[in-house]
Here is the input.
Amino acid sequence: MPITMTIRAGGALHQTSLRAAGLLAKAALSNATTTVDGLDAVSLLRRLAEAITSAALRTADSISALAHGDTTTSDHLLEQARVHLHRAPVTCQEVGSALLRHDGYLYAQARAARENLGPSSGAVKVSEAQRKALASLARGDGVFRDARRSVRELESPLNASVRTATIDALAAKELLTLTPLTGQEGRSAIRLTSEGIQALLAAPPPKPGRPAIATSLPIRSRTAARTSARR
Here is the structure.
């Protein structure tokens, strides 16, 4: 990669890392920490900010190596930067999904208060996938498309990431309803029933999973360190 392009990439990554850090700080101080899904979003943002910062450092080292004619080290460091960033798009989607569930849970709490839906010992038990689906759809703005040729999918919200089979299972348990939309053939509005709200609020928090194993990469290669020392 030409040095001009590398410098531009490094500058963009530096700015992105600052924005990611700022967003993480805001999220950590917001009401995101009041729900399981909000905490998940904060954790994902922290992971994303760390990955972007590491990539920016690798790119800066690459520029230093390239400026001293060490193209081999420069290419190696750029590859390390790429490794740190390869999951960034997926992580961004996961953050969006977690925040959607966080907002849905808060909406469910508000609706339960409005409709006087107190805790119920007889609340329907749901799996973790079903809990996430209920939280994603709690705001009542979901649209399900059931078109011809067996095309069945959740059309909105876009960040919901809910499987069709999960929607069918929740409908079978009468935790949500599908109401055909007037003038929109094959599309139905999704709304949680009172039992769906209670099931969501009564669902136990998910069990903590295994901590993610980070890829071990040296922060600076020996060659990059030597070239920096000669500057």
Notes: The longest strand covers residues 187-192. Residues 36-67 form the longest helix (32 residues).
